[in-house]
Amino acid sequence: MGEEETTEINEMAIKCPVCAVEGFATSIMKEIEIPHFGKVLETTIQCKKCGFKHSDVIALEHNDPAKYSLKISEETLSVRVVRSQSATVTIPEIGVKVEPGPKSEGYVTNVEGILTRFEGAVKKAMQLFQDEQSQTNAQNTLEAIEELINGERTATLIIDDPFGQSNIVSDDVVISEIPEEELQQLKTGFSHIEDK
Ligand SMILES: [Zn+2]
């Protein structure tokens, strides 16, 4: 895989969307050229006053809505992954799933980075749900994630993106259409406005 090129496009001071204090928040826009994929625009908003941070990515070259599947193994841990805000990320064998929501972020990472993010999410959940059953389940999930990171087991990474903004950049990826009934159930991160 060739070299990735990152170009900073602009940085500007903005009013923080959370604490609304002026002069502390910046928005940094970067263009990342990912070999065998194309250009991705990454925007990161950061506030030094309240600590708010949010990032998102937009693929500049259009993809169709698609389901991407890749076998996670020692060989694929470094495979590039583009996860947009609208994507659902699942590893069915170990029962973990991240769905888009108002707080979900878009990012460019690799398979290992996805696993590390899941690890963080499970640890956070462990602090929220203290009952024994939840703790045992979470502990088992953490062990499974650890084994995946160490290349000691395999599983499937699935990314469903109804807007075609995500990708797993590998020759081994299996790309398929999202079945209609699944497409309707996918969360998009946008609130629903019902027609009256
Ligand atoms: Zn703020």
Which helices and strands appear, and what pairs or packs with what?
Layout: E1 5-14, E2 25-34, E3 38-47, E4 53-59, E5 66-72, E6 80-83, E7 88-91, E8 96-98, E9 107-110, H1 111-128, H2 132-149, E10 155-161, E11 167-169, E12 174-176, H3 180-185
Antiparallel strand pairs: 1-2, 2-3, 3-4, 5-10, 5-12, 6-9, 6-11, 7-8, 7-10
Helix pairs in contact: 1-2
Bound molecules: zinc ion.
Residues 16, 18-19, 21, 25, 47, 49-50, 52 line the site of zinc ion.
Q: What this model shows, in words?
A:
This protein has 196 residues and is of the alpha+beta class. The chain folds into two domains: 1-61, N-terminal domain of TfIIb, CATH 2.20.25; 62-196, ZPR1, A/B domain (Jelly Rolls, Sandwich), CATH 2.60.120. It has helices at residues 111-128, 132-149, 180-185; strands at 5-14, 25-34, 38-47, 53-59, 66-72, 80-83, 88-91, 96-98, 107-110, 155-161, 167-169, 174-176. The strands form three sheets. Strands 8-7-10-5-12 form a five-stranded antiparallel β-sheet, with no helix packed on it. A four-stranded antiparallel β-sheet has the order 1-2-3-4, with no helix packed on it. Strands 9-6-11 form a three-stranded antiparallel β-sheet. Helix 1 (111-128) packs antiparallel against helix 2 (132-149). The site of zinc ion has 9 residues, from loops.
